[in-house]
Structures are given as structure tokens and as C-alpha cells.
Amino acid sequence: MTLNFHKMNGAGNDFVVIDNRDLDIELSKEQIAKLCDRQRGVGADGLLAVEPAEKGADYKFRYYNADGGEAEMCGNGARCFGKYTARISGEGTELVTFETIAGTLSATMIGDDVKIAMSDPFDLEMNADLQIEGLDAPIHVLNTGVPHAVVFVDDLESLDIVKYGAAIRYHSHFAPAGTNVNFVSIHDEKHIAIRTYERGVEGETLACGTGMTACALIHHLRTRAASPINVDVEGGDTLEIGFSADESDFTEVTLTGPADFVFIGQIQI
What we know:
Blueprint: E1 2-10, E2 13-19, H1 29-36, E3 46-52, E4 59-65, E5 70-71, H2 75-89, E6 95-100, E7 103-110, E8 113-117, E9 122-125, E10 139-143, E11 147-152, H3 161-169, E12 180-188, E13 191-198, E14 203-205, H4 209-223, E15 229-232, E16 238-246, E17 249-258, E18 260-268
Parallel strand pairs: 2-3, 4-6, 11-12, 13-15
Antiparallel strand pairs: 1-2, 1-18, 3-4, 4-5, 6-7, 7-8, 8-17, 9-10, 10-11, 12-13, 13-14, 15-16, 16-17
Helix pairs in contact: 2-4
């Protein structure tokens, strides 16, 4: 089978994107993992598939991690999905909606950037009751479409992200599904930096949209920093998280940042 695809990049998070509106492409978990393999395939943090909507939106969003497992949502992937579907919708399209496992989202084109209206977060747990050997910092939990653990640290650059990320990701507190893990340092009240260990990739990625959203919201709860909050990611970009907050309840959460086409290709699978 010859598979046509686009390669896209959102703040360093990269994706294989396929148009499956005809539902004629059926990929196994092993095939998706091979496509995402950086030595034996295209190479990506995950795969995005465009499918026909079922609940009244413009499209259906399917997202698969690099290991081939399907996930509820991906913030950087959602921006790429939004830009891709705006292109196939026709010239001049500035707004698209799409159904995800985490709810129906919208993407607005703002110049070269894309603004995602996120679903409301849930499962907040400040100062979760778990300890990680060698890591002397509270761990906070929030689901922003997928589950995230958030840890504020003093020295972000020298921290062993894979060691501590894996320890938290596989901790029994998050069993059986596990969690994504974000480490955060504070530049100032309105500006933070993060590094992320992603579940399904099982390593550090250059950016994570739902992760930076969780970090910004937890930062607000710790400091009462006002919206919007800027977030630096390891890929070198700075993205903006907007929100409305009522105590610990968040609504109107948005994620704004880049989404770029890298190349178009074909591959035999």
C-alpha cells in the first residue's frame, strides 16, 4: 500500500498527517509505530488522521502516539490538524471545528499561528500524595485533554527529564494508563518554561500543547498569575495560554502557537 501523507510541526512536536475522510486507510498499531520511527519510517512524535465528523463538527480528529496507541488529544497536534483541515476546506477558511475523544474543539487561523479553543480541564489534584526518590518537589495533576503531572523545579536545564519523567509516568498513582510529565521553571509571573516527558513517546519531546496548558493553569493556581501566560518550550518557541478562572475551575482555555507544513510524501507500508 502506498500512503500519501503530510509532515507537520507544531513548536517542535512533529506529526505524520493523513487524509482519511473516505475511511479507506486502516493502519495497525505496528504500522503507525513504524511510520513514526525515526530510523525506519517517516519519523514523528505521533500520527494525525482526518476522518469524517459524526456529531456535527467539520471533521473528526484521531491522534496516535509514536508507539501506535491512540490518545484522547494533543494540543500541538490540534493546531497542526486545524491548519491542515483549514487548507483542505478551501482558500479563506479561518475557523474549523473537530471532534476529539476529549470533546469538540475549534481552531482559528491567526496569521501563521493557530488558536485552539480547548476543552475544560478536570481531575485537578494539587500536591498529590506521592513521592519520587531524588525529587524534592510537590507533584500536581491536571487533565487538559490527556492526563498531566506538573512539577516546579529550580534548575530545569540540568534535570534528568527521562529519569524523573519515567518514574512519575509509571508511578502506581497513575496506573494503569500512566501520565505525561512536565517540569517547570518560572521566568516571571506571566512567563514560564517547561520540559515534557510524553507518555507513548517514552522520552522527552520538544513541546507538548496539553502539557504547557496544564503547566500554565497550575502556575495560576500557585501564584494567581493573570491570563494570558507565555510558555517557553524546549523546541525554542513561546506559546500563549489564555483562560478564565473561578477559584480552581477553568473555562475558555485557549492555546495559541505555530503550526507548520514541513513536506509532502509517499511511503510504502
